[in-house]
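Obj.: predict assembly geometry.
Materials: sequence records (below).
Method: joint structure prediction, all chains together.
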Amino acid sequence: MKTRYSSMEEIADKIHLQARLSLVSNFSNKEQSLIGIYGHKFNKAESFPLPENKEFVAYVLSILNLKKSDNPLVIEEYRRLERVLNYKRKVFCLDLEGLIIDNNEQVPGIKEAIRTIRKKHNIVISTAMPENEAIELLAEKDLADISFLIFGDLAHPKGKKYNQIAEFFSYAHPENHLVAVGHSFEDVPADINIPFMYLDVPKEQLYQALIESSEFLSGKDPKHFEIIQGSLDTKIKDKFFLVTTR
Amino acid sequence: MLILSFNELNLEDLNKSTFAINDEKIIRFSIDIKHYIICLGTERDDHIKQGEILLAQEENLEDLNEKEISNLLINHIMGGSIYFETLQKVFILLGGSSIEQALKLELGKKHSKESFAVCRDLVEKLFEKFYKNISIKINFN
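Observations (raw structure tokens):
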């Protein structure tokens, strides 16, 4: 039976609280976690994440698993947390076949690489494969516990489509947030102008190249690889990063 | 996403921008009280995106430094949400725009209470054509 609330203001508070509870669903003490993000008025619709709690917000984001079924208020709350961190977090869009799974096997070290990157950034799967097949494949290869958001059917004659990922996150300027990563030119962004990291390295080095590429975008020099910007003559030239072995 | 001048706003646009969470209806908007513009988001256009789109409409931003941009935007672009079950009883929450969140986070600035009062008057006049029994709350943060 539906509970009635005395005012629309209470209803607004309730639906925002529900959205915020989704952000801390992995925590046992949800109320304390929400206080850690929003302060003691965490149950009021108008509350914002507190800028002084950056470290806790970063931790919350590192273990948060957004779902396709999350409602728009959950995504907006997620975005407000990103903003507290000054948008330093990126969303890495990883190709499935070739980068995560190759020749029907998990790419060596990839699970650990994903866990490492997730401490600082978000990761989604961007694949040409239908979404349900990708979910099955990840489960089959012992990768379901990484809890990715999966975007399927992204094939495009000139590469891959990424706009639906930008739309999911409501990014007005996806080039500031999304980074496409692939091991093939079939992963080149074809519909929006976002950075593309092309990992032109042997399979056994992919995991390390992935980690160093993510660190490179945060300003750290790569140790084992060379990263060259702008070496592809396409419309994303200035956003193309070729990652090769030194 | 729709960007309209205040006098262009109509009920059809509001309906297009309405989405539901559980059974409750919501419209997310941002308004520019300097240029009398309202931005209505779809389900996927949150306040942050709206703020970024309105910001992109400002002229000659590339010629300004961070401080000048903040001075341009302070007391200028505000966010709001409309919550309702029927058009007869509406709650509007104002403030907390993404622009203000950015100003506060990066530069320690906030919109003034006077600007929110202006915003409240504009919003009330704007929506009274469409809704009855509007209650408005301002979030001064």
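Conclusions so far: Chain B has a mean pLDDT of 89.
To do: check interface contacts against the pulldown list.
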